[in-house]
Description:
oxidoreductase activity, acting on paired donors, with incorporation or reduction of molecular oxygen; oxidoreductase; alpha/beta; NTA_MOA; EC 1.14.-.-; 8-stranded parallel β-barrel; globular
Amino acid sequence: MTRQMHLFAYLKTGPTALHAGGWRHPDAVLDDFLEPGRYQAIARTLEQACFDGCFFADLQGLYDIHGGGFDTYVRRGGQISFLDPMVVLPVMAAVTSRLGLGATLSTSFLHPYHLARALLSMDVLSKGRMAWNIVTSATDLEARNYGMDEIADKAARYERADEVVEACMKLWKSWDKDAFTLDKESGLFADPAKVHYANYEGRYVRTRGPLSIPQSAQGHPVLMQAGSSPRGIQFAARWAEIVFAPDAADDKMQENYRTLKQGIVAADRSPDDCALCVQTTCIVAETDSMAQERADYVNALATEELNMATVSANSGVDVSRLAGSESVADLAKNQGIHEALSMLETVQRERGAALRQTLERRLPNMIVGSYKTVADRLEAMFTSGCCDGFVLTPVMFPGSHESFCRMVVPELQRRGLFRTHYTGTTLREHLGTTPGR
């Protein structure tokens, strides 16, 4: 069978995703982001297009790094999670039967028993379509919301994350698949010999178990991860079945792809057991010129201050107060996403006095063009060893995902690059992966 790409949709429980101006576009729908119907509609759209799945990016709080407060993010409409995705996902599961459904949950703040119980419950009810986007978190604001003074250093966060996932894996196997008898005549409901304590004890977490929840149709949720630091890649090589990777120049993406796959093999897994999917933002139209007009228009809607606030949020550095000579790493301390910090260090080094002006104009990299132009670029990345698929990040909701599904997906299908129908029922079947260990 010809290798086919994987497609996932990046979602937020709010009107703004990664593009700071998208919510201001006349076609962006704003009056329903607190309504169940909004999320059910996009779930149906993605399933009709045969997407592998979707996931909600999330933050356990409200960004208040830029300018020392949350004024810019609230006033200018930054990327805010207005609802808990674990409440939204069940309403999406109820109107779909194949689409994978992912939640972002932190190993730094949540206990493995809580994580294992909530995620497996969703996986059982969705009949094996749940994914856990594992994050270690990267902001002091989240830590303070959970009663801590500051976020732990990265090494400690990943050590804890390994333990949390180890504990969850043991808890998810509390019940053997054939534990239930349900024999009314004999009065035997389930075999207690097929229910097991976890008895997990590590340096950071411990849990006895067992869970009261049986295994799902796919055994347990698919594991997803987005860390791009060396330690994050090591974690992904051990556990992840989906890696959400940043876009970059082709040679850099190819290098990242090789590094991850080599790490997976070193972890005694098959390289096919993890799909690397690159973050991709597309603006598509009937012609290249029409798409460029759309891109120019929506880019002009992004306010400079919110662009800077987004950089502050991702890097953990208040760039409104960043002088050219200050060390980004020293200012970030333990905060910040690896890729965002690397970008900020590069811009500071290369742009010097023009740092602020550069950050004010910073927007997501975009593929802009007709459906054929967009498909050409995705095909080139896919076939040249950059990735196994893509995470589509929208500019405006719901139009970005809808236009991609309506125009680009059929072109990918015509080229034999993407499925025309689902052949499995679970997310793990869509991926063709085996869990890490």
